[in-house]
Amino acid sequence: MNVLIDTNVIVDVLTRREPFFADSSLVLDRAERGDFVAAVCATTVTTVFYLVRRHLGARETVERLKDLTTICTVAPVNQSVIDSALHDRFSDFEDAVLHHSAALIGADCIVTRNEADFRESSLLIYSPAQFLAALALHKAEGGAGKPSKPGV
């Protein structure tokens, strides 16, 4: 299963933001264990640096980003991603970029705390808690096919 993790989930982990830290950190933990293939958008890396350096300092933030990029691949933002985002119906341009970057790498879903921002997405959208439940269900079913929303 290929998963793109939204910026807010990463920021929650690196800043230990409550009440979101527990589920968000479990998502990264499961990625680190190889339970799924995780990616972050290229714009996430720069945005995380900008936001998190105020909490951790520049040097520590760079070290955390190095750790992140050993766990997650970096999904590209190229001309086609930008063109698609500019012509999409997303209300937020950054979310459109993230969605099209996820689609470019063949992601099955996006994990975010802002599910409503991805109403226009053609991909499955999960909160961290929903994703963890879907991952457990997916593994129980033998990992065949794409994940589904629990209870859907």
Strand order of the largest sheet: 3-2-1-4-5
> What is the helix content?
40-55%
> What is the fold-level CATH name, i.e. the topology?
Rossmann fold
Q: Would you identify the CATH H-level superfamily?
A: 5'-nuclease
Mean pLDDT across the residues is 93
Q: Beta-strand level of the residues, as a percent range?
A: 5-15%
> Kindly, what is the distance between the CA atoms of the first and last residues, rounded to a whole number of angstroms?
18 Å
Number of strands: 5
The helix count comes to 7
Rough shape? globular
The SSE string, one letter per element, is: EHHEHHEHHEEH
| Integer tally of domains | 1
Biggest sheet architecture: 5 strands, parallel
Ranges with pLDDT <50 over ≥5 residues? none
Cα-based radius of gyration, to the nearest Å = 15 Å
The class by helix and strand makeup works out as: alpha/beta
CATH architectural group: 3-Layer(aba) Sandwich
Structure description:
With 152 residues, the protein is α/β, with parallel strands linked by helices. The chain has seven helices and five strands. Strands 3-2-1-4-5 form a five-stranded parallel β-sheet. The longest helix is centred in the first third of the chain and has 15 residues, at 42-56. It starts with a strand and ends in a 12-residue tail after the last helix.
